[in-house]
Amino acid sequence: MQRMAQEAGSSSSNGYFTCIARVFQIKKTFYALLNITILCGCLTILLLRGTIGIRNPSFTYTLGPKISNWDQERSNWLNKNPEFPNYVNGKARVLLVTGSPPGPCDAPIGDHYLLKFIKNKIDYCRIHGIDIMYNMAILDEELAGYWAKLPLIRRLMLSHPEVEWIWWLDSDAMFTDMIFELPLSKYNNSNLVVHGYLELFNQKSWIALNTGSFLLRNCQWSLDLLDAWAQMGPKGPIRDEAGKVLTAKLKGRPAFEADDQSALIYLLSSKKSQWMDKVFLENSYYLHGYWVGLVDRYEKIMEKFHPGFGDERWPFVTHFVGCKPCGSYADYAIEKCFRSMERAFNFADNQVLKLYGFEHRGLLSPGLKRIRNETTRPLEFVHQIDIRPIHRLKTLLHGGGGDSVTHHRYQRPFGGGGGGATWQADKENNPEFPNHVNGKARVLLVTGSPPKPCDNPIGDHYLLKAIKNKIDYCRLHGIEIVYNLAHLDKELAGYWAKLPLIRRLMLSHPEVEWIWWMDSDALFTDMVFELPLKKYVNHNLVIHGYPDLLFDQKSWIALNTGSFLFRNCQWSLDLLDAWAPMGPKGAVRDEAGKILTANLKGRPAFEADDQSALIYLLISRKDEWMDKVFVENSYYLHGYWAGLVDRYEEMMEKYHPGLGDERWPFVTHFVGCKPCGSYGDYAVERCLSSMERAYNFADNQVLKLYGFRHRGLLSPKIRRIRNETTTPLEIVDQFDIRHSTNGHS
Q1: Is 129 left (phi over 0), alpha (psi -120 to 50) or beta?
Q2: Against a cut of 0.70, is the pTM above it?
Q3: Best CA proximity match to 94, nearest among 222, 188, 184
Q4: Residue 672 DSSP SS3
Q5: What is the mean pLDDT of residues 568-582?
């Protein structure tokens, strides 16, 4: 109760949907409150009738056309589309939804922390088999700010009938128990699960519930609730006047415009008989955990407990209410907020890094330290330390060993490390983690960015757009994703950092058949095109390039390592070991750079880079490696941006997505732009405007399902391209670009 009382000055907030405005000045508040008694009676009557009518007595705001038979329509659709089940292996399908502003944060460091928040959510969702949606568009200008989640959730429900639960999580909320799993079976008879306290709810306290993290079942009841909830949301007079009603009716609420959290509390408390039977007030674990009472206890928590509890012993979610990392003001000192966010991120990240043998040097340090030596039997650690649900169950049933190990990975100088000659046999002994699902090879897309903020103040915002773009593609095609923000090996920093990361992921994820590396400055621009993986059945490395440039000209641009696929096999581990020796920074890399410049056509004089080193390796040891390398140029696994971004309008006029080649490029790669660096090979303005065009070009393909598109390829704003309908599933069947998947096994 004391923790809840501490929240009184701030309610559920996030960087994007800025949950609560600053409390008005005391003088203004005093005079505003004098008028509440007069206004309250009239407004309450109108509100309980389901309309506010401030601007027009006959005006009633709606989220869209009234849907009245959703449960039956959705059931029919699911029966007709068994490839899109709402339950996978007996587990309800969940879509986690979050978002942030379409434009950069007021403070540049805000975007960097939004990146950390989304990396944290990607990790949790990957571990627990949850789909994720990251939104950066305002679907309804009337419901901007903290209300923007409502039209988004409704649109997602109607466009994704295969999803059983929509889980909204504010952008400033972070998972801090990566093992705890939602007890969904507990909610079989409920449609809304929200963190709250019945005692406070009965007192009509404005902090009785928190809407920064809640689950809404995809059903008719939820659509009706959203319609009723939205009535106080339209900006302007309606929201202002409704705020006065909420302040008058809810205990402890300051005077400010209506917010979504207060509106929900008021709606549920004033119409209990209509709604509360299907509402589950959850407080047995921290679906929402107020950060002030948690972040300074992490060391004690680690000392006394272990992840998996989800409650005060090890909080499931830590929510930075009142910090507003993306805004220009906050309810707390910004230094305290960012310091606490860093602690929460590293506290959670340590639970993920443990599988790979690392942890942060401290809860305020982006640097890592090794917590165990490598071994030639890496799968022993997968069994002992993997935090995915099936492995945890096996450990409980059969017992788990300790973390000690006597072997060291560096078998020779600057090698990728040990891996054992029995890797192929070792990885085939766990049928519950198949490397093919429904006949399709399992793919893990890997990308990353620096652990510290970009030198370019706007760089983190474009990294955020790039990861949102990758999240979209991976969700559409059933691909898992890892976003890395750590250096695993300081010797292989910079563009070489991908090698130790890829190797570690191979050894820790034997169920993954392909590791797909993609640079942070590469965007998917054909959201329909799917990798022709069957084409590569006899190959272990797939990389964009041209054989004539590679072998005839020995050109340093014959291949591009910004986007390539590596099969998880012994051959790939051996290639990584052969590739890495030119990478260690300092004298080794400098001298290797001279060799590469002397042997590769057109290469400038600079230190060794991973791309040139791979080209040199394949040329000089062709007989050893090339039999398993597929040099791909029939589509744009890598597409050089300078020749593409100015042609997007022509492409849209003449062609359609799904081609993947020069007609509609699969990937647009911003080689030389370095959006996170302090310099690049091209003018920064040209690079950023081109990245904006590429992002919106791709985003239009996703937004089309929801009935929107960007006003222009340089505009963050969107416009409606078709009217809503009372039969939304006809639109799903017509415009859905997803490839069917039965989910993760």
Answers
A1: left
A2: yes
A3: 184
A4: coil
A5: 97
